[in-house]
Write a structure and sequence with these properties.
Blueprint lengths: L2 H26 L5 H25 L3
Helix pairs in contact: 1-2
């Protein structure tokens, strides 16, 4: 598998993870304990930043 294909696969997986975390925060946020909610929001930010970096790397020729 080429590096570009691997990056695309990883980016796709992280994108799905990001979508799932965001959906969890938005749909269940009111029902979660405050500390769990805070950790999920922090994880959401971290995954979003990771996704931006992966997309930037994957878009390079």
């Amino acid at each position: 598998m080429s590096v570009q294909n691997e990056l695309n696969t990883i980016t796709s997986s992280i994108s799905e993870l990001s979508t799932r975390i965001t959906a969890l925060v938005e749909s269940e946020g009111d029902e979660l304990a405050p500390d769990i909610y805070s950790e999920l929001v922090a994880a959401e930010r971290t995954v979003t930043a990771l996704l931006r970096r992966l997309r930037r790397v994957a878009s390079r020729p």
